[in-house]
Automatic annotation (TrEMBL):
<dbReference type="InterPro" id="IPR002139">
    <property type="entry name" value="Ribo/fructo_kinase"/>
</dbReference>
<dbReference type="InterPro" id="IPR011877">
    <property type="entry name" value="Ribokinase"/>
</dbReference>
<dbReference type="InterPro" id="IPR011611">
    <property type="entry name" value="PfkB_dom"/>
</dbReference>
<dbReference type="GO" id="GO:0046872">
    <property type="term" value="F:metal ion binding"/>
</dbReference>
<comment type="similarity">
    <text>Belongs to the carbohydrate kinase PfkB family.</text>
</comment>
<dbReference type="GO" id="GO:0004747">
    <property type="term" value="F:ribokinase activity"/>
</dbReference>
<dbReference type="GO" id="GO:0005524">
    <property type="term" value="F:ATP binding"/>
</dbReference>
<dbReference type="Pfam" id="PF00294">
    <property type="entry name" value="PfkB"/>
</dbReference>
<feature type="domain" description="Carbohydrate kinase PfkB">
    <location>
        <begin position="8"/>
        <end position="289"/>
    </location>
</feature>
<keyword id="KW-0808">Transferase</keyword>
<protein>
    <recommendedName>
        <fullName>Ribokinase</fullName>
        <ecNumber>2.7.1.15</ecNumber>
    </recommendedName>
</protein>
<keyword id="KW-0119">Carbohydrate metabolism</keyword>
<keyword id="KW-0630">Potassium</keyword>
<keyword id="KW-0460">Magnesium</keyword>
<dbReference type="InterPro" id="IPR029056">
    <property type="entry name" value="Ribokinase-like"/>
</dbReference>
<keyword id="KW-0418">Kinase</keyword>
<dbReference type="GO" id="GO:0006014">
    <property type="term" value="P:D-ribose metabolic process"/>
</dbReference>
Amino acid sequence: MNFSSEQPKIIVVGSSSIDLVLETDKLPLPNETVLAVNSESYFGGKGANQAVGTARLGASVYFIGCVGMDPLGQQIMRNLVGENVNVGFVHETDKESTGTAYVTTSEGNAAIVVVPAANKYLNKSHIDEADRYFHTSDLVLVQLEVSMDVVEYTVKKAKKYGKKVGLYASPAMRVSDEILEAVDFIVAKSNELFIIFGEEKREEVLKKYFNKVFVRDDTNSTIYFDGTEMKYYRKNKDKTVYKMGMGDAFTSGFAIALCHGNSVEDCVKFGNEVSSRVSGGKGSQTGLPRMSDFFS
Ligand SMILES: OC[C@H]1O[C@H](O)[C@H](O)[C@@H]1O
């Protein structure tokens, strides 16, 4: 694996939120009431997680997102600034409060309900405001917690300027064939392929999008087709506290390795490494590693 001294320039377009994490002895079944044994809040949102993930790995990062005009929005801004993420394109709306996510976690498994709130107000003109940074960026990351219109607009702008684009297709929803074709890599969960691609058979999806679709499961395994054969890589999680934010961490690691010109195989291995670390910390951002954690 090669990581040069050059600093990758990354734009992340997406959500930010405060995650309220409820620890329970078991995940509640439908119509069941359970007691929480602990409750804590953390910084989250797939966009913000990837902004922090790539910044900790040495990238110069612009995050484009939207928060509410409220104390939670201010906390998110301060956190991003503290993580060396540029917040010049994080907008505030008075129409909704800051996004939140309600997470129930038990034995490492997490069930998440996201309230997009202010994240819904991210719009195309916000993306246009950052136009000149699209020119100079190396790579753009998107996920699916802001409107599909904004995601599509972002992808098209990035491709117009010849930039690499990574899509973490979560929360799963149908993505147009045009966008699936346009992006350079797609991270998806194994049980959600039909929703995203309209095709259930994993082999079919992987073969159609070889070296491009990376399917993950919660054992921190990644599978893809390299044009000749199926490739499977697994990195045992260093220590599992919460299985939260692993897809974001994988995407961050993959993106950084790609910016440094590594092979697809090495990008996957590094993504798995980064993902294995995040599950060792509470919440989606605490355990995100720095480059010095790998090479000191
Ligand atoms: O991917 C993990 C994230 O999903 C939800 O968006 C939560 O905010 C959490 O931080």
